[in-house]
Specification:
0% strand, 10 helices, mainly alpha, elongated
């Protein structure tokens, strides 16, 4: 894990240029690709089951993302406030913004996920796919809805790291989550590795577990003692 913080002498790294920009941008771009790659992997794995299964994952996956995108966008805004304090040599105030993001965004995301779960039947009815796709899409949508809050947590914490100039930690977390998603997809869709065979629902469950794993990995980095001391990441009250 790398982050640009004031060193022990109190001197802040002022280096810049294309190399620094590339070092920050490359893992950031790859992280964003990997987040959406989970749904792509679901489609690739499920595609072997048939056209209806593939259509169900594509349809439900797009709408789960669309209905949760507001919270993801709000979580990304944490990066702006963290970066402002970090750039102003007020790094001890950075952690508090992450907690305010978690406090204000995650409960709303969890509520949205619950509403998607409960309203999956009505949502799919409005979209009106073919009759053989409807039950498959509902199952996948309900499974994916359970990961909305987890993804909101992960993106909020990742935004903190990007705000302090560390794009590598979120990249590592998304990479590990994607590897887990690939493993669980084959396990839960086809019943491999001793897992139950769940088909399309299994793909949704795999992605939801991977989103929560993504959140857990970034949270582990966020709680490290070095960050608590340098960036004030200890738990903060709502403000």
């Amino acid at each position: 894990m790398r982050f640009n913080e004031q060193n022990a002498t109190g001197i802040t790294d002022q280096s810049g240029g294309l190399r620094e920009m590339a070092n920050l941008a490359a893992p950031l771009v790859l992280s964003q690709i990997l987040i959406t790659a989970m749904g792509v992997v679901d489609s690739m794995v499920v595609g072997r089951l048939g056209a209806s299964e593939l259509a169900a994952v594509g349809l439900a996956g797009v709408w789960v993302w669309a209905l949760s995108a507001f919270f993801i966008g709000a979580a990304i805004s944490v990066q702006t406030f963290v970066a402002q304090h970090h750039g102003s040599n007020e790094s001890e105030k950075c952690g508090g913004w992450c907690w305010q993001g978690l406090i204000s965004i995650v409960p709303c995301a969890a509520l949205a996920g619950l509403l998607i779960f409960l309203g999956a039947h009505e949502i799919i009815q409005v979209l009106d796919p073919s009759d053989d796709v409807k039950p498959l899409a509902r199952g996948y949508m309900r499974a994916r809805s359970l990961g909305v809050a987890g993804l909101a947590i992960a993106v909020t914490l990742s935004s903190f790291f990007r705000g302090i100039g560390d794009a590598h930690t979120p990249f590592v977390a998304t990479l590990l989550a994607n590897l887990l998603n690939l493993f669980l997809d084959f396990g839960l869709v086809y019943g491999w590795f001793g897992f139950p065979k769940l088909g399309v629902v299994g793909a949704g469950v795999a992605t939801t577990i991977s989103e929560w794993a993504y959140a857990g990995i970034v949270a582990w980095f966020f709680g490290r003692a070095a960050l608590v001391q340098a960036f004030g990441t200890r738990r903060a009250r709502p403000d």
